[in-house]
Design a protein that fits this description.
heterodimer; A: 6-stranded mixed sheet; 13 helices; B: 11 helices; 2 strands; 73% helix
Chain lengths: 392, 289
């Protein structure tokens, strides 16, 4: 009984192997990209922006590159790492994808890392932002950002611009702690003082007591990192409590004033200074065209997640061009290293050593442009590498 | 000193909000003995109705609030007549499974219709900001919440204790068989009560958008808070959940202000301590029906 069962399983396996051997004839001329994104759940806006941007890119540039047809297979992981892993496994084993891409949050990107290494296919990270990610597999390439990039820059900028005492309010999870630590390191080294440090729970219903504490500490500014979505609540309560009138500014990495939500936050957000990689108001022609096309297709503005997705698919296209359509994963990663191009966000490159993104970080202030709220860039720190890696 | 008073004020406002959101649940759970985990979905519905009316159709905020109540109550009564009433006699496990399913469906439906990002209701300028009262910062919006919720609580208590409907409801709850024998239309009383509880939740949802944030995950995120209020308060009266809400609101705000590192745990610690001390809640009846 047992033997027959194993026999039939072996037969089934052989049959599958046979099928697989036949399949490549067709697979020769398609390149499959497994896109794993949170399309439902609290992070769904990230997933939607990236998906939209990729569709837009493929409409603009066509769906064939280096003689191959590009096919996207989208899987929803709801930002739950277990599901990410299952999705990646299915994509690699059943669909035989040549790339896995997307990844809304850090744990999701990490969950897929060992699979990318085993299968020897590139993992293009288009959202998740902690520094360690690219160190977890030699096949990981990132087109989004790291929190260290924006947090260290805003720390440096604050000290030089008359902000001496800062109170911090950050969400108590990995990216929040990353943002806090990198900011503190640079801000304190420059001579600034952190007078108050509050970590808010991730599922935080009401900022009132924390903000009251900030107000009583009387800092020059509050450094804020909260996940996208909570930024609006924070800004509203900041204004309600009169912190703006008490002369306490808001600074932080640009997540708090994400373009996706910024325009609904109300005038309280005016004057907020953030450091970030992308603003929909970036004054290049390329960006103007990108924003116009995105708005026309989807009815709202692209945020930094959209631009990361747009650049991610661009990088995949360029890598395929460079290998002449060769889909060997190791060659593709090699082809991605050192790529440089002009993105809607400005000039960017892939660091050949860390496979992480090198980009300009802009200091922006929220202003009203044509009746809408925008992050208007006024200073640029050029070609910022990820500073979070080298130390460890 | 002034910051103590400001915190107290914030705590009371937060507690009042919790009460309006949760008291409908206290009614269904305590009075009707039905576990309705979908309660937050009705709150969310009210919030979204208010948002659409104010932001998209230009209604004034104060005109939209009663409509948030009415629409949630209408959804409540429709669901009560078609779905809920079949489950009154079923086990609690069936009720939990049914209502949690309903919650997930509401989350998916709102996500589909309105998108997953957080929405805000445009407030009139008169409700924004803070003013100083003898040096104590008073948020206008929070003051409005306290006024509305305070009046509601008094009205509710009066209705339950003084009116004919109140006594019918209490009779229907205490002994449904005897009550119907006396000519009280028990299913009708329950349906009305259920709808009223849903309406209150809807109003709470509309009021809480500004403070708690409104998105499709609202029913799941705040379910635990509603349950804490009801368990701590005991579910046999309105006073119990009311005092529990105030206690938890003030405790939560004070905890986050004075011991920010422990802040998130204060509300749970209070719940555990109170439940050890009084397992049926502050005002619970000892004999279960």
């Amino acid at each position: 009984m047992f033997e027959r069962k194993t026999f039939s399983r072996a037969a089934a396996l052989a049959a599958i192997a046979g099928l697989a051997a036949v399949a490549p004839a067709k697979a020769e001329d398609t390149v499959k990209i497994g896109l794993i994104l949170p399309m439902t759940g609290g992070q769904a806006s990230t997933g939607k922006q990236i998906e939209n941007a990729i569709k837009l890119y493929m409409q603009q540039k066509g769906d064939t590159v280096a003689g191959k047809k590009v096919e996207i297979i989208l899987k929803d992981d709801g930002a739950v790492p277990d599901k990410t892993k299952t999705a990646a496994q299915e994509l690699i084993v059943n669909d035989k994808v040549n790339f896995i891409a997307g990844f809304g949050v850090t744990p999701a990107a990490l969950a897929a890392a060992p699979l990318a290494t085993q299968a020897k296919i590139p993992e293009v990270v288009m959202a998740a932002g902690t520094s360690i990610i690219t160190e977890r597999s030699p096949y990981i390439v990132r087109t989004s950002f790291t929190l260290a990039q924006s947090s260290t820059i805003i720390g440096d900028w604050a000290v030089k611009n008359g902000i001496k005492k800062v109170a911090t309010l950050t969400s108590d999870y990995a990216p929040g702690n990353d943002a806090l630590n990198f900011f503190k390191e640079h801000f304190v080294a420059g001579g600034g003082e952190v007078v108050e440090e509050v970590k808010t729970p991730l599922a935080n219903p009401d900022f009132a007591p924390f903000l009251q504490r900030m107000k009583d500490a009387k800092p020059d500014a509050i450094f804020v990192f909260v996940p996208a979505g909570q930024g609006g609540n924070f800004m509203k309560q900041y204004a309600e409590r009169g912190l703006d009138k008490a002369g306490i500014k808001v600074i932080g990495p640009g997540d708090v004033t994400d373009d996706d939500l910024l325009n609904n936050m109300g005038d309280a957000v005016l004057g907020t200074v953030t450091a970030h990689l992308y603003s929909a108001a970036h004054p290049s022609q390329l960006n103007k065209d990108f924003v116009a096309a995105y708005k026309k297709a989807y009815g709202n503005r692209p945020g930094f997640m959209a631009v990361s997705g747009y650049d991610g698919i661009h990088l995949i296209y360029e890598a395929l061009k460079k290998t002449n359509g060769d889909t060997d994963g190791t060659k593709l990663v090699e082809a991605m290293k050192g790529q440089k191009w002009e993105s809607p966000r400005g000039p960017i490159a892939i660091d050949p050593e860390t496979r992480d993104i090198v980009q300009n970080i802009y200091i922006r202030k929220v202003e009203k442009v044509d009746g809408e709220l925008y992050n208007v860039e006024f200073a640029t720190f050029e070609a910022v590498k990820d500073l979070g890696k080298t130390k460890k | 000193m002034t910051s103590i008073l400001t915190n107290l004020f914030d705590g009371v406002a937060y507690g009042m909000l919790l009460f309006v959101l949760a008291c409908g649940l206290a009614v269904t759970l305590g009075l009707m003995n039905f576990v309705n985990l979908a309660h937050g979905a009705f709150a969310m519905a009210g919030g979204y109705v208010c948002m659409v009316l104010v932001n998209r159709m230009g209604w004034p905020f104060f005109a939209a609030l009663p409509l948030a109540f009415v629409s949630s109550a209408a959804i409540g009564i429709a669901l009560e007549r078609t779905l809920y009433r079949h489950l009154y006699a079923r086990s609690h496990l069936d009720q939990v499974l049914f209502t949690i399913g309903l919650t997930f469906m509401s989350v998916a439906a709102v996500d589909y219709i309105q998108g997953s990002s957080r929405v805000f209701i445009n407030l009139p300028a008169a409700l924004q900001g803070q003013f100083d009262l003898f040096g104590v910062g008073i948020g206008r919006y929070r003051l409005m919440i306290i006024v509305i919720c305070g009046l509601l609580t008094i009205a509710l208590q009066m209705v339950l204790a003084k009116t004919r409907f109140g006594s019918r409801l209490r009779a229907a709850v205490d002994d449904p068989r005897a009550a119907s024998g006396l000519g009280i239309n028990v299913p009708q009383v329950f349906a009305f009560t259920f709808a009223f509880g849903c309406g209150l939740a809807g109003l709470g949802g509309a009021l809480s958008a500004e403070i708690l944030g409104l998105d499709p995950y609202f029913p799941l995120k705040f379910m635990i808070y509603f349950l804490i209020v009801v368990t701590v308060g005991g579910s046999s009266s309105i006073t119990g959940p009311f005092l529990a809400s105030l206690l938890l609101g003030i405790g939560d705000v004070a905890g986050k202000y004075y011991v920010p590192k422990m802040g998130p745990f204060v509300i749970y610690t209070m719940m555990i301590v109170i439940l050890i001390w009084r397992p049926n809640g502050l005002f619970g009846r000892t004999a279960a029906r």
